[in-house]
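Async update (no meeting this week)

Hi team, since we skipped the sync, here's where things stand on the single-chain job. The sequence we agreed to prioritize is pasted below, unchanged from the tracker. I ran it this morning and attached the output directly underneath so nobody has to dig for it. Comments welcome in thread, and please keep replies under the output.
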Amino acid sequence: VYISYLEIYNENAYDLLDREHLELPLEKWNKVTMYEDDDKNLHLKNLSVHYCENEKQGIDLMMMGNYIRKVSSTPMNMCSSRSHCIFTITLESKNKETEHVYISKLHLVDLAGSERISRNQLEGTLLNETKYINLSLTYLEQVIVALKSMKNKKKGHIPYRNSLMTTILKDSLGGNCRTTLIACLSLDLENVEETISTCRFA
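Output:
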């Protein structure tokens, strides 16, 4: 079992399990970059992968990443995620008789919630973060809609490359995978429009 933890903040990717990042400001973090090999397989440079022997090690790694991920106080949430995060558990097994190796991945994705800029009167850093969050969620929606069209035998292009997140999650959205979405809703009447918007997105 191997674990990695990736943060996508303002359309830049960072490794949340790089111990040097505990001491450094975000501006000095190493960015994770993508490249494709000749077989069109996607690789992430500067993303560490950690061997995990038991559940405690996995939880400790998740807690370490959560400690340094980007959060801020907003009008709707005192501790709002300002980035999307992908916690990946890779399972690798080998058949000792045939020597065949089997690899499966489980991506646990925490999507930052979209916010209405006009209502919350955001400015500065929060405004910039919100623009990137809303844009990447729009691109994710476009990918899901395109996949649905393909399932209904309609030809078309699936815009995975429009955002970093959809590019990285390509094999977890289409192809041989199962995807589940858990939507978090606010029951406060003040947030009814956001609740309806979240339900529509889901």
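Quick observations from my side:
The mean pLDDT is 87.
The first strand starts at residue 2 and ends at 9.
Reply here if anything looks off.
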